[in-house]
């Protein structure tokens, strides 16, 4: 009705009383309104019941992300210390490590930077 080309708010029939509506249509409209209200209430209850679990899971994920970030930082520091210890202890004695011993300890691994 509002989207029709010839709609005008000045048309007084727009303001006709509800009593002029067919009682069968009014009953149908009331039933549909009641059904929609019940659906809205059920959806709200379900969202409310699940939102706590969602927010709890989100906090857990954020905590895990922070733990992983801290762990990566510690791993980077440990690898740097191992490299320095190897450099000072092994090379200062004049020994060399076998090929590939520290290749898995790459300090330039993008995941650790």
Measured distance between first and last alpha carbons: 62 Å
Number of distinct helices = 1
Which descriptor suits the 3D outline? rod-shaped
Give Rg in angstroms.
36 Å
**Approximate strand percentage:** under 5%
Task: Find the structural class using helix and strand composition.
Answer: mainly alpha
Main sheet properties: none
- As residue ranges, the low-confidence spans are none
Strand segment count: 0
Mean residue pLDDT: 79
Percent helix range: 55-70%
Number of individual domains? 1
Order of helices and strands: H
Description:
The protein has one domain. It is rod-shaped, with a radius of gyration of 36 Å. It starts with 22 loop residues before the first helix and ends in a 20-residue tail after the last helix. The protein has 113 residues and is mainly alpha-helical. The model has no long low-confidence stretch (mean pLDDT 79). The protein has 1 helix and no strands. It has one helix spanning 23-93.
In brief:
With 113 residues, the chain is mostly helical. Helix content is 63%, strand content 0%.
């Amino acid at each position: 009705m509002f989207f029709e080309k010839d709609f005008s708010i000045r048309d007084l029939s727009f303001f006709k009383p509800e009593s002029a509506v067919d009682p069968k249509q009014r009953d149908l409209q009331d039933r549909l309104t009641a059904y929609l209200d019940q659906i809205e209430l059920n959806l709200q209850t379900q969202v409310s019941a699940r939102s706590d679990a969602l927010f709890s899971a989100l906090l857990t994920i954020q905590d895990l992300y922070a733990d992983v970030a801290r762990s990566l930082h510690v791993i980077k520091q440990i690898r740097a210390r191992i490299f320095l210890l190897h450099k000072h202890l092994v090379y200062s004695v004049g020994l060399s490590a076998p090929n590939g011993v520290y290749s898995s300890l790459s300090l330039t691994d993008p995941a650790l930077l």
